[in-house]
Amino acid sequence: MNTINVGILGLGTVGAGVLTILRQPHPDLAGLNFRVTRAAVRHVTAAREQKYPEIALTTEPQSIVTDPHIQVVVEVMGGVESTWPLLKTALTQGKHVITANKDLIAQHGDELSTIARAHSVALFYEAAVMGGVPILHTLTHTYANDRIHRLVGIANGTSNFILSQMHQAGRTYQEALTLAQQKGFAEADPINDVAGIDAAYKLTILARVAFGVHPSAQDINCQGIAGLSPTDFTAATHWYQVIKPLIVADQQQGSLALTVSPFAISQNHPLSRIDNENNGIVINSVNFQEMLLAGPGAGALPTAGSVIADLATVGHAIQAQRVPVFAPLIAVGPSLLPPEAYRAQRFLAWQGSTLPDTLPVIDRQISANGIIYALTQSVSVAEVRLWQEKYPTQLLRQFPVLSD
Ligand SMILES: NC(=O)c1ccc[n+]([C@@H]2O[C@H](COP(=O)([O-])OP(=O)(O)OC[C@H]3O[C@@H](n4cnc5c(N)ncnc54)[C@H](OP(=O)(O)O)[C@@H]3O)[C@@H](O)[C@H]2O)c1
After folding, report:
1. Domain ranges across the chain
2. pLDDT digits (tens, 9 = 90+) for 229-284
3. The Homoserine dehydrogenase catalytic domain covers which part of the protein (predicted)?
4. What pLDDT sits at residue 1?
5. Helix (H) or strand (E) segment spanning residue 74
6. Annotated catalytic, 244?
């Protein structure tokens, strides 16, 4: 049986996890005869060379993507500016590409997919969305003959960890963030995670695969979690709600609305029980109705496991002399709702002794520290922006409530 030569770009958390799994005996993988011949890192050290004696290490990733003996390139080094040209070269040279790089796929996935199709090679990226949760495979295989009308997910483990700690242990935002950093769930500069940027990349990829749309950052209502207070969680409990960092793709007014935000959700919602660094997604569709997928959204082995699943798919296709295809469910999707038109009930925290009569409030309570919490009727983002302009000091926080 022919060997399949693999080159890996990056031997950090995920890259080392990939090699760990490939070294374990496994009947399916053994049958595929993968051989990792080369790997690119920034630092080639003696310790690394001893750890991977069978792999030629290089600091020149370009030499791997142009190596005529390599059939599959696994990109787990991260970054966009450096990896984009590398993967274009790999695909153009007829190599299958597997990547865990959400930033790259969100920003350049369409172009890279076009190149992959033109050269009859695979571009797979299961690990780029929710790490170890097999959402892309499930969407493209299990849902191939179904019609999805809504996706609601927790796709950023850092934000979920922070909000879970604020809810369950009463920590402040800063305390919860510091704990996340101590445990390795948040980076020293957490902006991508807490501002919703990472989640927006994942929503971009999911919306493309599930709904056939091609959103840019301007198409997504994106609100981060910084500034939430532990009293927000107590107030939410009064309405049998919890606050979760969600990505939501749902249909409104005949268009698709894309939102990344903390949301107040019912305590009965399946995602209310997905805590700490875990990820989860609820898919609503015609045939399967409601399905929850949940699991580790990051980490060496879960993420590497998704890379390996893609690698096995590619390996089987190479053996069968087929082109491995990754097809979105819908070729041409619906229009995208302008972000300011998105409508939802709002959960708001108000500094002051009374709420203005102009706010369409349906229920209110006063917290122990004198903040008024209120639930409003469904309003558009444009209306909320007017409130923010009119009441810049009184309107402390507001975010949407997830509808049933
Ligand atoms: N970590 C996770 O749980 C997770 C989950 C889902 C997706 N991802 C994605 O997976 C990718 C890798 O993440 P990671 O956590 O494994 O990153 P990491 O631990 O920082 O590893 C990056 C690796 O790439 C190498 N590298 C970086 N730039 C390079 C360059 N210009 N030339 C050669 N080698 C280079 C580094 O070499 P040195 O070791 O020599 O510095 C390192 O081995 C990212 O796109 C990330 O978003 C990660």
Report:
1. 4-132+298-319, 140-297
2. 999 999 999 999 999 999 999 999 899 999 999 999 999 999 999 999 999 999 99
3. 134-311
4. 65
5. strand 72-75
6. no
Mean pLDDT along residues 59-68: 98
| Cα 297 to Cα 213: distance, rounded to the nearest angstrom | 24
**Does domain 140-297 fall into CATH 3.30.360.10?**
yes
Number of C-beta neighbours around residue 363 at 10 A: 10
Quick check: 114 and 92 in contact, CB under 8 A? no
Q: pLDDT per residue over 179-225, tens digit each?
A: 999 999 999 999 999 999 999 999 999 999 999 999 999 999 999 99
Residues with CB under 6 A from ligand 1: 10-15, 40-43, 59, 61, 76-78, 82, 100-102, 127, 131, 298-299, 303
Which tokens sit at 22? 């490939």
Place of tokens 């597997």: 98
Cβ 357 vs Cβ 315: under 8 Å: no
Tell whether 132 is in a known binding site: no
The Å distance, Cα 249 to ligand 1 centre, comes to: 29
Task: Tell whether 187 is in a known binding site.
Answer: yes
| pLDDT for residue 330 | 75
**Domain 4-132+298-319 falls in which CATH fold?**
Rossmann fold (3.40.50)
Q: Report the DSSP beta bridge partners of residue 258.
A: 220, 249
Identify the bridge partners of residue 249 per DSSP, sorted by sequence position. 151, 258
